[in-house]
Structure of L-lactate dehydrogenase complex protein LldF:
Amino acid sequence: MSETTAHAHPHVDVKEFHPRAHAAIHNPKIRQNFRKAMDGLMAKRTAAFEGWDLETLRDLGANIRLKALSNLPDLLEQLEQKLTENGIKVHWAVDGDEACRIVRDICVARDAKSVIKGKSMVSEEMELNHYLQDHGIEALESDLGEYIVQLADETPSHIIMPAIHKNTGEISELMHEKTGTDLSNDVEYLTASARQQLREKFMNADVGVSGVNFAVAETGTLCLVENEGNGRMTTTVPKCHIAVTGIEKVVPSLEDVSALLALLTRSATGQHITTYFNMISSPRKGEELDGPEEVHVVLVDNGRSSIYQDDELLDTLRCIRCGACMNHCPVYTRVGGHTYGTTYPGPIGKILMPHLIGLDEGRHLPTASSLCGACGEVCPVKIPIPDLLVRLRQESVDGDRLHPAKVRGHGAKRSTGEAMIWKGWAWMHASPGIYRLGTGVAAKFRALQPSKAGAWTDFRTVPKLAPKTLHQRMKERGQ
Ligand code: SF4
């Protein structure tokens, strides 16, 4: 089991979720940017699945992920063996810090001064960019959205579309200020300008770092899904390629990838297939003209093996990072991704982050949900997100007697005063005489009833105690 390290956004106090949510709700620009983007994504997803037997496909996706997870230790060993046979060097990292050190050591061994990065949420989890910069190695994001948030010194607000919180005008101003691009609302122009600046960096980068969507154990193949071609350049132009991935991304065979890919692209962006689908199976071979001389894979645990030990929480690891749960979440679409203060925002973040940062840090995350169930309904691999949220809520207070608490920091929300009130409440209800006495006294002194009950009454009215108890009224009626 691994102990994990820094995973919340640097300099952001995860516990300050409520003030940030309050500010976001009252920020019309954030609400407009997210509403517009999420409405578009939801419509595209619906259209992309038209004519498909979606439930059967979701069942298939869920079963593939369940099968892979049920056999995870063996699959990881098989993956390591195949990758090694293919000439890819495999590294294991127990947490984000170790993963960062591995990447740095590879860079140092190659005397690398600059790294170009493809999109990778695991590298966000590791805070790799800051780490490399602190060690004198330049790390530049090449995915357009990631490039924008890096220019703004921000973190991604969505796992698929990192800069979704910004509109074109804001991006134009940012690029003008940071890179001297002309102010323009022409998306083509802004994209071309970013492309030009990145192209030079690609040519000069010593190392390329990418994520992995699926790691195929049977063949030792790393699959990478992307739209911009930056993933292909990151993994082929620099002389050294380092892929970082969570240990749960392994699947048994290439056949499994096709079903998961169909679900991933449609659920994420409403595309039937992305523009690029990369399959990396080895470094450049002798007779080949391009590709990296060295390929490394860093398999990152970072709390995943701890999730793996619990039969219920294990479902969290099915995730294929499509972002559909976020796009359909009524909380996420109103407060935006930065409000969560965590690497993974929205519903997936609410069930994943407590394992990575502990429930003491992330105690508010499982409660930032209306439990409407939309996330569970759209999840392509049928993760029962609402059930997991309820489980984590229980653990954040006291752990569940049926499932001895396993999440780090469990019980952080437990308040002795509240626990005593509930204990008294249970005791009163277990004894009819005391119950009648208690409700009778409460009805008599109802004028003293407080009109506030903490945050619960910020948007609700306290129900007034009735002047007479039900028993008294029945008695008066002679019943
Ligand atoms: S939890 Fe499901 S819907 Fe959300 S990102 Fe993961 S796979 Fe997609």
